[in-house]
């Protein structure tokens, strides 16, 4: 079974998801994990599908991109063998005046501590820049990481918080 | 089992069911029974008493389990067990209890929190729940009506289980498109 990584991005308009999903369904491509969101007026879709060959999907999506408003890419990927046991989940939030390098500096701190970003969104609205990330950290390092993030945030003139994303099992 | 917070249950314990509980297998989504509203039950029937005992037994052998509803053991019915005793987030605690035909009669102080469920083992989601809650229902066996006033974690657990009885999962209540998460595997 082919596993495909597909991206579609273009000027937002009603019907992009329906158009793309319809093409995939007609080809027998099963949409598995995906995120789809609007980024500054562009609609961005990142999808994993299983089913047909990459070339067939590319050809089927081509008419949607023909007017130049949508850009679609398709590539075959190796299926994930299953997620490794990782760390403890945290939510990182950063906000402040926009400037170059906030995401780079913050995520470098996480990486250097053995952490892994599993989800991240940024928004720029006016001069306010916001980063929210789901992060996995190795056990026992969160206090040290929080300290380092605070120092880096101070240098950048932004505020930062790191809190456990604890789950209530019911 | 004394004090005002236990008054609502009148000293009820699972031993009053008088039957030993059997551990039943827990079903997971997309099992259709989880999405079907359960019918009201006769809390005094032998069948419901046995189900109540089984829910308690199954909850007790499931690590970290603080509540279990009938649909989770494959039975479409308005019956669930709860026990948040010893949970670090619990404030008011009513011990182990089973309620039939329970409904929320007052809910306030809504708070967001991340929830997981034994029947949706690979996902968690952000869900708003009332942190002050009044629930009415009936005890299995005697069928005695009860009114529980609770808060915090026990209130969240009760709402989660009452939802199960109505055929709802936490997935039906997530805060938005970006509010479900792959369940993390802890070291």
UniProtKB/TrEMBL annotation, chain A:
Residues forming the ACT domain are 5-79, 91-163
Q: What is this protein called?
A: Glycine cleavage system transcriptional repressor
Upper classification of the source organism reads: Bacteria, Bacillati, Actinomycetota, Actinomycetes, Micromonosporales
Database matches in Gene3D superfamilies: 3.30.70.260
Q: Which organism is it from?
A: Micromonospora tulbaghiae
User: One of this protein's Pfam families, by short name?
Assistant: ACT_6
Organism domain of life: Bacteria
TrEMBL record, chain B:
Gene name per UniProt? def
**Family recorded in the similarity comment:** Belongs to the polypeptide deformylase family.
- Report the EC number(s), separated by commas if there are several: 3.5.1.88
Cofactor(s) required, per the database record: Fe(2+)
Q: Which organism is it from?
A: Micromonospora marina
Q: Name one Pfam family in it.
A: Pep_deformylase
Protein's job:
Removes the formyl group from the N-terminal Met of newly synthesized proteins. Requires at least a dipeptide for an efficient rate of reaction. N-terminal L-methionine is a prerequisite for activity but the enzyme has broad specificity at other positions.
Biological-process GO terms, alphabetical: translation
What's the protein name?
Peptide deformylase
């Amino acid at each position: 079974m082919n596993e495909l990584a597909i991206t579609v991005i273009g000027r937002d308009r009603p019907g992009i998801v329906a158009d793309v999903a319809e093409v995939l369904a007609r080809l027998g491509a099963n949409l598995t994990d995906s995120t789809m969101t609007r980024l500054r007026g562009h609609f961005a879709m990142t999808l994993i599908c299983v089913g047909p060959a990459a070339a067939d999907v590319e050809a089927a999506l081509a008419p949607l991109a023909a007017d130049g408003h949508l850009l679609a890419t398709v590539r075959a990927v190796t299926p994930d063998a299953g997620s490794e046991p990782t760390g403890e989940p945290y939510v990182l939030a950063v906000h402040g005046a926009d400037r170059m390098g906030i995401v780079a500096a913050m995520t470098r701190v996480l990486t250097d501590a053995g952490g892994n970003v599993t989800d991240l969104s940024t928004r720029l609205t006016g001069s306010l820049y916001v980063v929210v990330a789901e992060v996995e950290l190795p056990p026992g390092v969160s206090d040290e990481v929080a300290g380092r993030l605070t120092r880096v945030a101070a240098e950048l003139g932004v505020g930062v918080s790191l809190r456990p994303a604890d789950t209530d099992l019911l | 089992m004394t004090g005002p917070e236990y008054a609502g249950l009148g000293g009820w314990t699972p031993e009053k069911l008088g039957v030993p509980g059997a551990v039943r297998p827990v079903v997971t989504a997309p099992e259709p029974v989880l999405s079907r509203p359960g019918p009201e039950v006769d809390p005094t029937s032998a069948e419901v008493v046995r189900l109540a005992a089984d829910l308690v037994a199954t909850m007790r052998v499931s690590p970290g389990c603080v509540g279990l509803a009938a649909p989770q053991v494959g039975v479409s019915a308005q019956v669930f067990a709860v026990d948040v005793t010893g949970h670090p987030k619990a404030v008011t605690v009513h011990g182990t209890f089973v309620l039939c035909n329970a409904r929320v009669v007052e809910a306030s102080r809504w708070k967001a929190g991340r929830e997981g469920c034994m029947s949706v083992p690979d996902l968690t989601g952000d869900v708003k729940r009332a942190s002050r809650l009044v629930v009415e229902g009936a005890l299995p066996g005697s069928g005695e009506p009860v009114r529980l006033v609770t808060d915090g974690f026990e209130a969240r657990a009760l709402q989660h289980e009452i939802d199960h009885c109505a055929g709802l999962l936490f997935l039906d209540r997530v805060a938005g498109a970006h509010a479900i998460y792959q369940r993390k595997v802890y070291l």
